[in-house]
Design goal:
By secondary structure, the chain is α/β, with parallel strands linked by helices. It contains 13 helices and 14 strands. A five-stranded parallel beta sheet has the order 5-4-3-10-11, sandwiched between helices. Strands 6-7-8-9 form a four-stranded antiparallel beta sheet.
Length: 401
């Protein structure tokens, strides 16, 4: 990512604001810091990258770009859930070894992200790699009376987390309903509370397991992210993010376990989420099969920068539905931008860079930032340095080349 300061277009204003999910309000992040810690929940690699995934990771790419432009470095950690029920179930259906399936889909995901020019995390940690950290965290919770056994499995007790509910702000009845829909087991016999979440699943016949001081088994989903984030970023972090379907139960449960482990609250200073992308009238998801795949668009000859532009044209906090004409509009816009940025002269770039920065630092409003570029491209001027400066700014702040 090029540094705009090297081109003499540094900014004295270092404030960056995002829309914090728990409060629903703008919150300043990284204020007074030279380093911002960011944890984003990654994929479960049993299928190819769809546009909903791409929109999510593009959001956090933009956050990195904006923070770094403001002089705030970012330490970004992302997990990959490379062992979990959906992956194992897909492997059974396809007759493929689950590890081979995971490795192939992880590589395709990385290839898609590279094509979209999405900045890679500093650490990309798999659940399997993190098993020693997960086992250690679960043992600590159990030893402190914050976890308990149910037929050999170990559960986290939400009663041990006084701040439980402060991420999603949902009533208990709604939590129980959603928990059952998103991988939880509220009706399991032997649990102390329907919302208590699985930390460690003991070995099952025909399923992968690992020998640990807890016994043979594998991690639960929520504690996986807790252990990885705390191991690589510390007891508390600045920002946690992902798709907005993770607000509950995943981010709520992960935060609860982290606070129980550290004795500090809140776990994250702010939460940032990408709203769902729909297609054919429903949320785009692997379970529904209504996917628009990044790799398929690329195979069809679509410029990855057009895909990126199409996604940036929607505000991350608003759910929207992909239409096939989106890519046509983005391709035309990209052509106009590239032609304007290749001119020998143009209008001064200073004002439009300020407009981009204002839109992006004030809540990551990418559609408004795109409009600022449109206005510059449709204007005339005689500044011979302007196209080079504008091109560098569009590259640095929006990732478009």
């Amino acid at each position: 990512m090029p540094a705009l300061s090297a081109l003499g277009i540094a900014s004295s204003d270092t404030a960056v604001e995002i829309r914090d999910t728990p409060s629903g309000e703008r919150k300043r992040i990284g204020e007074g810091k030279s380093l911002l810690t960011l944890y984003v929940c990654g994929i479960t690699p049993y299928d190819a990258t769809h546009l909903g995934h791409a929109a999510t990771y593009l959001l956090f790419d933009e956050l990195q770009r904006v923070c770094r432009d403001a002089g705030i470095d970012v330490r970004y950690v992302q997990n990959v859930t490379d062992v979990d029920d959906p992956l194992l179930e897909r492997a059974i259906v396809t007759g493929e070894d689950w590890t081979a399936l995971a490795e192939r889909e992880i590589e395709l995901f990385r290839t898609d992200m590279t094509a979209l020019r999405i900045l890679a995390p500093a650490e990309y940690i798999g659940a399997v790699e993190a098993i020693p950290d997960v086992a250690s965290a679960v043992a600590r919770l159990r030893d402190h009376g914050e976890a308990y056994d149910v037929d050999g499995d170990i559960y986290f007790s939400v009663a041990a987390a006084p701040g439980f509910g402060e991420v999603s702000h949902l009533p208990a009845e709604e939590m129980i309903k959603i928990f059952g829909q998103r991988g939880g087991d509220p009706d399991r016999s032997g649990k102390k509370d329907p919302l208590d979440s699985l930390l460690w699943q003991s070995a099952r016949p025909g399923e992968p397991s690992w020998d640990t001081p807890l016994g043979a088994g594998r991690p639960g989903w929520h504690i996986e992210c807790t252990a990885i984030a705390m191991r690589h970023l510390g007891d508390t972090i600045d920002v946690q993010g992902g798709g907005d379907d993770l607000v509950f139960p995943h981010h709520e449960m992960s935060a609860a376990a982290a606070c129980a482990l550290s004795g500090r609250s809140p776990f994250a200073g702010a939460y940032l989420h990408q709203a769902m992308v729909g297609y054919d009238g429903e949320k785009m998801s692997k379970s529904k099969g209504n996917l628009v795949l990044v790799s398929k668009l690329r195979e069809d000859g679509v410029d990855p920068m057009a895909i990126r532009l199409a996604l940036l044209n929607h505000h991350h906090s608003e759910a929207w539905e992909w239409k096939d004409e989106e890519i046509n509009s983005a391709t035309k816009r990209l052509e106009i931008w590239r032609a304007a940025l290749a001119r020998k002269s143009g209008p001064s770039a200073e004002a439009f860079i300020g407009e981009m920065r204002s839109s992006l630092r004030g809540g990551l409003n990418t559609p408004e930032a795109l409009k600022a570029v449109d206005r510059w491209c449709n204007s005339e001027g005689k500044d011979e340095k302007a196209p080079q400066t504008a091109k560098a700014a569009v590259d640095a702040l929006l990732g478009i080349v």
